């Protein structure tokens, strides 16, 4: 339990924020290398390949590259997206990523996402510090994930608005 708590604490504040991303055009291999640094056993589901990035672009889940070059904006989108897709469907993760990062200042929006992430990691670390039975804590985390996913899907749909009616 202490090892898991240490991993969670290590993740807190690990991401340096939007300003830590290189402000130069990047090729695909550089993009993936930057997003793959700071590997942790808890981040196993965040692995990224060039095929995955290309598929996300084709599905309009993240912005297109400028030629074959990627920017800080792409790093932010992929960072948020890879985290959200661990808990949500790819479609919902893409939609929530767009909603999270949209607006005038993508950097501020990304840093706001990181604050929410850090807050959640802190709450989880506190739970890990309790003497609660590890099986019960695992069950609680699983049930919380289920409930949070249902709520998140509902909230995403309410932000999107009702589906357009088909013309007859």
Describe this entry's structure for a reader.
By secondary structure, the chain is mostly helical. It has one domain. The protein is built from seven helices and no strands. The mean pLDDT is 85.
Topology:
Blueprint: H1 2-11, H2 28-36, H3 50-58, H4 72-84, H5 90-101, H6 106-128, H7 134-160
Can you give keywords for this protein?
61% helix, mainly alpha, globular, 168 residues
The amount of beta strand, in percent, is: under 5%
- How many domain regions? 1
**Strand pairing plus helix content: what structural class?**
mainly alpha
- How many β-strand runs? 0
Which series of helices and strands comes N to C? HHHHHHH
Mean pLDDT: 85
Cα radius of gyration in angstroms: 17 Å
Dominant shape: globular
- What's the helix count? 7
- Spans where pLDDT lies below 50 across 5 or more residues: none
State the major sheet.
Answer: none
Helical residue percent band? 55-70%
Summarize the structure.
This protein has 7 helices and no strands. By secondary structure, it is mostly helical.
């Amino acid at each position: 339990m202490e090892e898991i708590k240490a991993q969670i604490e290590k993740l807190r504040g690990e991401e340096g924020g939007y300003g830590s991303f290189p402000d130069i055009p990047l090729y695909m291999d550089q993009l993936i290398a930057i997003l793959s640094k700071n590997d942790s056993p808890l981040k196993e589901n965040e692995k990224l390949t060039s095929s995955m990035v290309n598929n996300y672009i084709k599905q309009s889940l993240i912005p297109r590259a400028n030629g074959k070059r990627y920017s800080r904006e792409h790093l932010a989108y992929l960072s948020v997206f890879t985290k959200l897709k661990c808990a949500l469907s790819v479609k919902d993760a893409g939609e929530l990523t767009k909603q999270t990062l949209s607006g005038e200042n993508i950097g501020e929006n990304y840093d706001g996402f990181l604050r929410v992430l850090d807050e959640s990691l802190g709450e989880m670390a506190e739970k890990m510090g309790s003497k609660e039975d590890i099986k019960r804590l695992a069950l609680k985390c699983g049930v919380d994930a289920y409930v949070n996913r249902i709520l998140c899907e509902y909230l995403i749909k309410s932000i999107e608005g009702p589906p357009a009616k088909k013309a007859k």
